[in-house]
Design goal:
Blueprint (H helix, E strand, L loop, with lengths): L8 H4 L5 H14 L2 H14 L14 E2 L2 E2 L1 E5 L2 E4 L5 H22 L3 H26 L5 H46 L1 H17 L3
Antiparallel strand pairs: 1-2, 3-4
Helix pairs in contact: 2-4, 3-4, 4-5, 5-6
């Protein structure tokens, strides 16, 4: 399980504390809460609908006795073998934590939330291809690697969009600071007079 999100000031406050996140993930992996499964599927429907039907394939590698395709490479379904309950719940926990992050971010910044959700969708697809790569034949691996490279390239581009938003925010704040500094310079004499008058009033105030 891996995450590729590079946080910026615009998203960092919505990132859970690493220790708290790890405890939450471990709790879900131990307790197997149904609501986490529901949240994971709901999140996949939003960010990676192509993976919804394959999530259950991580439960021991099969559903109803049949292997389920994780991803399709050049029209060929790549099946997951040797799955495990731990692997399934690790993925569910990852998706649930990310869903919570996107929801919290969306309450204050819908544009960033959409971009972060897109990044998490790309990450989910990259993890699916990573799992397929582990069990793929040598002849299939180059195609899977190319798919992963394409996903990471898209991820990089979305990160750039987030950074562009952050730069715009910084430039806006900087413009405000510069404007305030100029206002103070323009009214320098007035500010100084006000400060001196305040000091004098305090000096002659009856004690």
């Amino acid at each position: 399980m891996f995450g590729l999100l590079a946080t910026t000031a615009g998203t960092a406050q919505d990132m859970p504390n690493p220790q708290a996140k790890q405890m939450w993930v471990q709790q879900m992996m131990q307790q197997h809460p149904p609501e986490a499964e529901a949240a994971a599927r709901a999140f996949l429907m939003l960010v990676a609908p192509n993976l919804v039907s394959s999530l259950d394939s991580l439960k021991g590698g099969s559903v109803n006795g049949q292997n389920q395709p994780i991803v399709v490479i050049d029209g060929v379904p790549q099946t997951m073998t040797g799955g495990s309950t731990d692997q399934y719940w690790a993925e569910v926990a990852q998706l649930t934590v990310q869903f919570d992050m996107v929801q919290k971010l969306g309450q204050r910044d819908s544009v960033r939330a959409q971009l972060v959700g897109k990044m998490f969708g790309l990450e989910a697809n990259a993890r699916a291809h990573q799992r397929a790569y582990r069990t793929a034949s040598e002849s299939s691996r180059p195609a899977i690697r190319a798919k992963i490279e394409g996903l990471i390239s898209q991820h990089f581009d979305v990160e750039d969009q987030l950074r562009a938003l952050e730069i715009a925010d910084i430039e806006h704040r900087l413009a405000d600071v510069r404007a305030e500094s100029q206002r103070r310079r323009d009214k320098r004499a007035e500010f100084i007079k006000f400060a001196v008058d305040d000091i004098i009033r305090d000096a002659i105030r009856p004690r």
